[in-house]
Design a protein that fits this description.
Elements: E1 2-11, E2 19-29, E3 34-39, H1 45-53, E4 60-65, E5 68-69, H2 75-78, E6 82-85, H3 99-107, H4 115-118, H5 121-132, H6 151-162, E7 169-173, H7 181-198, E8 202-205, H8 209-214, E9 218-223, E10 226-232, H9 233-238, H10 241-254
Parallel strand pairs: 3-8, 3-9, 6-7, 7-8
Antiparallel strand pairs: 1-2, 1-4, 4-5, 9-10
Helix pairs in contact: 6-7
Bound molecules: adenosine-5'-triphosphate.
């Protein structure tokens, strides 16, 4: 479970450009929840993810992960418990290293030993098995540099690598936005499979309303640092894309856009 409690976040403090993004922002994501976060540009979705991951510091409030207050923890410490897949497929993998080396790196995340340990035959067979589950033929290219792969192949690897070592929460940061429609569909199917198999508590930020409707058990719509819609379970299951579009339109009218 992850809890954001009474979060205040300001940008450009002490300047004429000072803005308050979050004032007493609260969110609880229960164990096993798969929550899709949607919302207009600048509504605070990425800032929220950055606060959770530790790349951004709040002016007030606490972030509690499975009962532990991680608010003061450095980003690299949080990375042992929080996996993040970024919009840019290049972010989650190392292009100058081979597929095998990348897999070994992910496998040994947070451990004290080097690469050699992860590349014995048993581990190589294990990586091959994991890669074959992606259905992209990567298991036969383990000596290839990751930089030579397509964006979709790299994003599939990033997803696999992020979820390889045990994590307490998975963050998907518009992870299909840079992919063509067919590849995005494939990555979403893989995402659904991985989340279900590993029973991962997941927060997915997306601008794709269909994915937000089709995946996960909860949907959150943000606007100007507030949650303006929060539906789970049966209520969420009944939602269709048009309902979300209506909500977007209503917000635009209220804001005079
Ligand atoms: N480093 C920063 N310095 C100043 N303002 C920032 C910074 N990062 C974000 N903001 C502001 O905070 C607000 C929220 O931005 P954020 O990127 O979190 O929104 P978002 O919902 O993720 O938007 P998008 O859908 O466009 O990615 C915006 O008004 C943005 O201009």
């Amino acid at each position: 479970m992850i809890e954001l409690k009474h979060i205040d976040k300001y940008y450009n403090i002490g300047t004429v450009n000072e803005v308050c993004l979050f004032k007493d922002f609260n969110l609880t994501v229960d164990d096993g929840d798969f929550i899709s976060v949607i919302g207009s540009n600048g509504s605070g979705k990425t800032s929220m993810l950055n606060l959770i991951c530790g790349s951004l510091e709040a002016e007030a409030g606490n972030i509690i992960l499975n009962g532990e207050d991680i608010s003061q923890q450095k980003e690299y410490i949080r990375q042992r418990k929080i996996g993040r897949v970024y919009q840019n497929p290049a972010m989650g993998t190392c292009p100058s290293m081979t597929i095998l080396e990348n897999m070994s790196l992910a496998d040994n995340k947070g451990k004290k030993f080097g690469l050699g340990f992860g590349t014995n035959k048993k581990r190589v067979d294990y990586y091959r098995e994991l890669l074959s589950q992606l259905g992209l033929g990567l298991e036969d290219m383990m000596g290839s540099k990751v930089g030579s792969l397509s964006g979709g192949q790299r994003q599939a690897m990033a997803l696999l690598m992020t979820t390889m070592a045990p994590i307490e929460i998975l963050i998907l940061d518009e992870h299909t936005a840079a992919l063509d429609p067919k590849t995005a569909e494939l990555i979403m199917e893989l995402t659904g499979k991985v989340v279900k198999e590993k029973k991962l508590t997941t927060i997915m930020v997306t601008h794709n309303l269909r994915y937000a409707v089709e995946y996960g058990n909860r949907i959150l719509m943000m606007h100007q640092g507030h949650a303006v819609l929060d539906k789970a379970g049966e209520e969420k299951a009944k939602l269709v894309v048009d309902d979300l579009l209506d909500q977007f339109n209503q917000i635009s009218i209220e804001c005079g856009n």
